[in-house]
Amino acid sequence: MRSYGHIETIDDYLADESRVSAAEREQVSFEVDLIGKMIEARESRGMTQRDLAEASGLKQPAIARIESMRSAPRVDTLLKLLVPLGYTLSIVPLEADRGE
User: Fold this and answer.
1) 69-75: long-range contacts at Cβ-Cβ below 8 A with a sequence spacing of 24 or more?
2) Nearest Cα to 63, choosing from 46, 77, 44?
3) Cβ-based neighbour number of residue 45 at 10 Å
4) Number of helices (H) and strands (E), helices first, in the chain?
5) Per-residue confidence in pLDDT tens, the chain, 100 aa
6) Which contacts (CB < 8 Å, 24+ apart) does range 79-84 have?
7) DSSP letter for each residue of 49-96
């Protein structure tokens, strides 16, 4: 494996503040969590990507690109995918703000 200084894994890269800002780290974390939950919801319902494509009106290759994180979906696309899975998007306060 090729190493760039002390960077050996994606986690090392993301932790390097000289390469990735806190906002970029938060975005990557959000996308990984969101797509992971979407895959989990699809699989827990016994749906294939093809099933979700039929239910959402999207094409299966587009779903594959989103699930492999090769493509970042727009909000309207996310809603098309999430609604057939029984989910929606919402805005919630950050953990630090919840107790105030």
Assistant:
1) 69/31, 69/32, 69/35, 72/31
2) 77
3) 13
4) 6, 0
5) 454 556 677 777 777 777 878 888 888 888 989 999 999 999 999 999 999 999 999 999 999 999 999 999 999 999 999 999 999 999 889 776 545 4
6) 80/56, 81/38, 81/52, 81/56, 82/38, 82/41, 83/56, 84/52, 84/55, 84/56
7) HHHHHHHHT--HHHHHHHHTTSSPPPHHHHHHHHGGGT--------HH
Tokens of 26: 């938060």
The pair of structure tokens assigned to 54 is 């039929």
- Copy the structure tokens of residue 85: 């899975």
Place of tokens 């989103």: 66
